[in-house]
Amino acid sequence: MIRSRWWLLVIAAAAVGPVVVLTIIGSPVVDIATGAAVCAAYAVVFLLLRPRVVEGNGYAIALIVATIAWSATLTGVESLLAVTQTVAYPVAWVVSRGRGAAIVASLGIALGVGAGFLLGEEGPDAWGTALVSQTLSFGFSTIMGLWISRIAELGEEKARLLDELQATQAQLAAAERDAGVTHERARMSREVHDTVAQSLTGLVLLAQRARRAHNAGALDDELLELIESGARDALAETRALVASAAPVELSQGGIADALQRLAERFEREARIRVTVQTAIDVPLDRDTEVVLLRCAQEGLANVRKHSGADAAHVALVAGADGVRLTVRDDGRGFPAELRAGFGLAGLRDRLALAGGALEVDGTPGATTITATLPAGGAS
User: Is the residue at 373 inside a domain?
Assistant: First the structure.
């Protein structure tokens, strides 16, 4: 703190002020010369020691001793210059290490100035005046020093806490970014599986049918049209996914129409009869419709890949008590202990994010997946 440029103004005032005071009050030339010499010497010592001073080091102690000598000598020349204590005490508190050392330095200033006062003043009241004035100045400087030191400590503590808070906020922001990246990757993984991967799976199956039909000489335009339609749907889903938009099926109507189109396309591709039944008594928001459509897509994909079914049924019921979507098939079913694949796991995660749940029943002839969403899913 002693390296602050403000201290240069202070030392300039400390070097010039006493000489001005001595001149104004008409002091003898010898006193003015003595005062000027003392002030000049102190200014030189201050400027030499200032760059090297660290709280409590040897240069700090030397500066305190020079400050005591400066103030005491000027007070001995003219008792009015005991006012130089207003500079001496702050110097002592600034360069001392700790409160105890500052109090000891302040006591040295009080004693030094008191001694200078006794040398410069004569009479029976000199001792009493010196005792009272220096006791008061020492007490006041100690109180002010302790108070300002406490304020400085609180400021440093506040700065430290602020730095810690900013560091914690930075860590929290980094953690949130990482969590956001992880969440987005999981979302994109589910979206790719539920859209592009399903469409491409359908294309693979259609291509296999086309190869068999070609080998048998029975390849017709309808099968090629299904392959083209499936490729267009995959392309549209990919573009919608890149644009982070709602599924293209929902852009052409609500969830009921989207389920019907999904069933018709699935029936043509997989040659499994699909019926759709909807009972929507409350309006559904777009996010809820997306979740329901993905559930239907995953359910029918499992029917195509695993069930060996002849027919499937999709039912959607949306009312004040919640939303329920079921996909049922008459296929072979699966054991209860069979571990679910990525599709159903991703579907559970998607429903959980929306506050819903997924139930799976592998009963042969009535295999069913049931997706439920709370009433809050409807807007």
Answer: yes
Residues 293-307: b if buried by 16+ CB within 10 A, e if exposed: bbbbbbbbbbbbebb
Q: How many CA atoms lie within 13 A of 333 on its CB side?
A: 13
According to DSSP, the residues that pair with 278 across neighbouring strands are 316
Write out 110-167 in H/E/C secondary structure: HHHHHHHHHHHCCCCCHHHHHHHHHHHHHHHHHHHHHHHHHHHHHHHHHHHHHHHHHH
Counted residue by residue, the chain has a size of 379
What gap in Å lies between CA 137 and CA 113, rounded to an integer?
Answer: 10
Domain residue limits at 65: 6-122
Contacts of 144 (CB under 8 A, 6+ apart): 89
Q: Which residues pair with 280 in a beta bridge?
A: 318
In a domain, residue 102? The reply is: yes
Element (H, E) at 274: strand 273-280
pTM equals 0.46
User: For residues 130 and 76, what is the distance between their CA atoms, to the nearest angstrom?
Assistant: 12
What is the distance between the alpha carbons of residues 272 and 208, in angstroms, rounded to a whole number? 16
Please indicate, yes or no, if residue 363 is contained in any of the structural domains: yes
Query: How do residues 91-148 score in pLDDT, each as one tens digit?
Result: 888 888 888 888 988 898 888 888 888 887 776 677 887 788 888 888 888 888 788 7
d(CA 102, CA 95): 8
Cα–Cα distance for residue pair 327/344, rounded to 1 Å? 13
Look-up of token digits 């259609």: 206
Q: Is there a domain that residue 38 lies in?
A: yes
Mean pLDDT of 223-233: 76
Where are the strands (E) in 281-373, listed by range?
A: 311-319, 322-329, 357-361, 367-373
